[in-house]
Structure of LysR family transcriptional regulator:
Amino acid sequence: MELRHLRYFVAVAEEGHFGRAAGRLNIVQPALSMQIKALETELGGPLFIRTSRRVELTEAGKLLLAQARLTLEQVEHTRLAVERAMRGETGRVRVGFAGNAIFSGKMIADLRRFRQAHPDAEVIIQEIAPQQQVTAILTGRIDIGYTPDNSTTADPQIRVQLAGNWEIMAALCEDHPLAVHPQLTVDMLAGQPLVLYDAHDTHENLYILLAQRLGERFNVAHSSNSTLSVLAIAAAGLGLALIPAPLQQVNIPGLVYRSLNAPELTANLVMVSRVQEPGNAVTAYLAMASLV
């Protein structure tokens, strides 16, 4: 018994006529009659009582009609479910983010758009330190990461897409001697205890540029992979933090923000993912996030 046999049988049963059923199925009547006869032979008895004007179901035919409808409905449900999965409308997307990615607005906007377009897809969000995200993707813990660009993203198995670029600002306690200036220069940072993200390692552009400009007076006193830790250290007066501009949205008592007259110092936010991505939901998310 094949699915087409069930479809043919249901059409004849609902139309009560082989000719009309053949027209509905877009096949010739002799072929339809042959298929129904083959089905009856396989099942071992008649499914229809045939008259000159119409056909009626036997008791066995009535039973088969109920079961055939259930079977065909389940097949259609399965087909639609698989098609939705193939389009990425269902499935799972696991997103990792470094703390400052939230304040850029890009990640939140991407998540909202994906949720609106694919409400049945499961989305899991977790905070992961910048230099751990690539490993988390390659080991299957997450599918996509939002992170400041850093040396660990240079992996042939990882695709890197720019998600944002901002100027660098200074965050410092309100009674810091430099807080009286509305704008700071790089030279003012000489000798100051600086607070950097762990992502700004010795291979990262910000670190390299500061080291070149400040030389021996480049003083990294603290580093952290936590956005709140970086800001807390600065607010406590333990150092002057260099942060991407979107973080000035964070209001912490005793902390002030100052622009930095150094357009060459910028912070990149990137979206990292697998080059070979098997998941349709993840592929759909990446396609949507890449549009804006």
About this structure: The chain has three domains: 3-86, 92-163+269-290, 167-267. Residues 3-86 form a domain with the Arc Repressor Mutant, subunit A fold (CATH 1.10.10.10). The chain has ten helices and twelve strands. The chain has a mean pLDDT of 89.
